[in-house]
Amino acid sequence: MTDPAALVLAIDAAFAADPPWDEETPIRPDSAGDPRIEHTFRGLRGVRWRDVPFEALDALRSSIPFLSNAAFRFALPAFMTYGTTDPARAGNLLADLVLTLTPPDNADVSQLEHFTGPRPITDAEWMALVESRRMAVTSGTAYREFADRVAGLTGDQHATVSSFLEYLRDVDFDEAAATALQRYWTSC
Fold first, then answer.
1. Rg (CA), the chain
2. Whole-angstrom distance, CA of residue 40 vs CA of residue 50
3. First to last CA, the chain
4. Residue 149 and residue 133: Cα distance in Å, rounded?
5. Which of helix, strand or coil describes residue 27?
6. C-alpha torsion sign, points 52, 57, 162, 137
7. pLDDT of residue 91
8. Which of 75, 59, 64 is nearest to 27 (CA)?
9. Strand, coil or helix: what is 137?
10. Least reliable range by pLDDT among 19-33, 38-52, 155-169
11. How far apart are CA 181 and CA 162, in angstroms?
12. Nearest Cα to 1, choosing from 63, 66, 59, 84?
């Protein structure tokens, strides 16, 4: 699907029945998280996903991996709509979203291990992070976390996420979206 208007309609239809936000904790239990997440979601109590302003999504820009599964599933259609209707403004949010929609595997660990760009932590901390990720992937924990995150989606919602990733792959030539499709979304 390469028509953004049709994709937005498909997102709206697939997620139309989803209830307003009413959970207590929007942060993953294993994460220190980000105080902006709590603040943003406090303002979303009782709000349906389609009524979430883009400003609230902007506030969650770098926090997608830290969202609880319930918060992620609530915000997913809003993130997809935002990325489809205003991709320039959504920017890096799309990269974080696609990364979160991609089941982990050993290739990801290898990329981390050989990353040569600037790192926000020391080399020793980086290598500890890589080893921790390797253990999570090897043990299957990382995949189970991914599966738990997307488990609450209906068949129509799965298909819509797949269409969204196809859109990113076809329109933006997004290799990461192609990887997500290959690893999971085209096989469900």
1. 16
2. 15
3. 18
4. 17
5. strand
6. negative
7. 83
8. 64
9. helix
10. 19-33
11. 7
12. 84
Q: What is the pLDDT of residues 104-150, one digit of tens each?
A: 887 776 777 777 777 777 888 878 877 877 787 788 888 898 999 99
Contact (CB, 8 A) for 162 and 185: yes
Sequence-distant (6+) residues with CB within 8 A of 110 are none
In the prediction, which pLDDT does 96 show? 87
Between these two residues, 64 and 24, which has the higher pLDDT value? 64
Using CA atoms, how far apart are residues 161 and 167, in angstroms rounded to an integer? Answer: 10
Q: Are 33 and 59 in contact (CB under 8 A)?
A: no
CB 11 within 8 Å of CB 82 = no
What six digits make up the tokens of 134? 């390797």
Q: How far is CA 11 from the centre of its chain?
A: 15
The angle formed by the CA atoms of residues 157, 158 and 162, to the nearest 5 degrees, is 115
Q: What percent of the chain has pLDDT over 90?
A: 39
Number of separate helices (H) and strands (E) present in the chain: 11, 0
Nearest to 181 by CA among 157, 167, 133, 171: 167
Phi, psi angles (nearest 5°) of residue 63: -110, 0
- Residues 72-102: tens digit of each pLDDT: 999 999 999 999 999 888 888 888 899 899 9
* Rounded CA separation 91/5 (Å): 19
